[in-house]
Amino acid sequence: MRAAERTGMTQDQWGRLKQDLLKSVGKSNFKSWIEPLELSHLEEGVATFAVPTSFVGNYVSQKYGDQILYHVQSVSPEIRRVHFQVPGNQARRPAQARPAAAPAEPAIRRDPMMPAAPLDKRFTFDTFVVGKPNELAHAAAKRVASGGPVTFNPLFLYGGVGLGKTHLMHAIAWELSERQPELNVVYLSAEQFMYRFVQALRERKMMDFKSMFRAVDVLMVDDVQFIAGKESTQEEFFHTFNALVDGGKQIIISADRAPGEIENLEERIKSRLQCGLVVDLHPTNYELRLGILQSKVEYYRTQYPGLQLADGVLEFLAMRITKNVRVLEGALTRLFAFASLVGHEITLELTQDCLADVLRSSERQVTIEEIQRQVSDHFNIRLSDLIGPKRVRVFARPRQVAMYLAKQMTSRSLPEIGRRFGGRDHTTVMHGVRRIDELRVTDSQIAEDLELLRRTLEA
Ligand SMILES: Nc1ncnc2c1ncn2[C@@H]1O[C@H](COP(=O)(O)OP(=O)(O)OP(=O)(O)O)[C@@H](O)[C@H]1O
């Protein structure tokens, strides 16, 4: 602690910097990653922070290292690196610390000076599940990864949070590096681009910065919307972009929205970004979510051998958690971890208990009345016949479909659903739900009806 005070940055100052970081990383990231960091000591230009686990240390170093260094340098310009260490772990001395953003495993880069961010080993084409919503983006990414002549430049991938943009970019980088190991492939976030740029400015190393980026063969910049409103970063990005395109080098960009929709982005950059191929990742559909869950479960089976998974759980999750793939994955991780702790088969009940909060927050607030209206419209029958007592197939089947959707899309209990369907018994509802669950697999028409209805109800 004393060392920290001697070289200028005090605990108080670190406390204030943390508050600045809170603003830039957001509350929940702050709680998970920044708040636990304690300034441990400063030595030979390295600021060392105590972290509770090495996982937190690695993650923070990769994700926030640059940002933390940037803030730390605003009060202690002599600090060159930040280091994260579990107290008592003497194996790594601060003097051997890597630069903040350096990956645990070397990223794809030839030049040790190259400012690449680490690539996630799990983000390959093999682990990317393709479905209707992402097939175009996947095909475009595959084309770029094949490494042929540059046909569209840039490739611009956009889509909502957690839909696989970063995954696809990493997959391109992995494949390119396998096919053409001599290529200088650099992946980094727009935020990292900015921090590198600001650092180069501060250290008067702009020439190095420029020549470093201009020596790249394939440049990938993730979340480019981040530079909106940041004038000088935009300016530098524009020059880098032009130099690379002019040199016939491939650029791949991602953003949360289409180029034309990014506010506070200079027009000339927008139009440059639109020059190549712009493809979007659509929100996931039920089939894609189910496919992703199935592929992740294969992995979990190796991690938790012997853990049983009851039928219908994945279908339930794919139906109920529609927000994004990250949330879906998080739910599955939690479920497996929980089930292995309690040593219990993963049943629907356990799933509902364990994920109650996630399920509640992704609830679509669809009401049973809405479901009934949509279903009767869809099957072209009267609402009174859907709810009424007649048991002929033309009414009974749509009724079962509506009950099934009510069970899947709302949190109403079986008796409650029964009451809303003309005062039927909960066993009738249960039978209906089971019947549709079976037909969903064997009858493609029913599967299609369900998907269409679900989409309309979610819209
Ligand atoms: N089609 C898919 N197949 C397998 N995993 C996927 C797919 N789409 C997304 N994922 C997984 O979902 C998680 C979030 O994806 P990713 O980080 O690529 O999202 P993103 O679009 O870059 O989101 P953000 O806008 O937050 O940066 C990752 O773990 C990724 O592997």
UniProtKB/TrEMBL annotation:
Record localization: Cytoplasm
Domain AAA+ ATPase residues, every copy: 151-281
Domain Chromosomal replication initiator DnaA C-terminal residues, every copy: 367-436
Pfam families: Bac_DnaA (PF00308), Bac_DnaA_C (PF08299), DnaA_N (PF11638)
ATP-binding as UniProt keyword: yes
Family: Belongs to the DnaA family.
Protein name: Chromosomal replication initiator protein DnaA
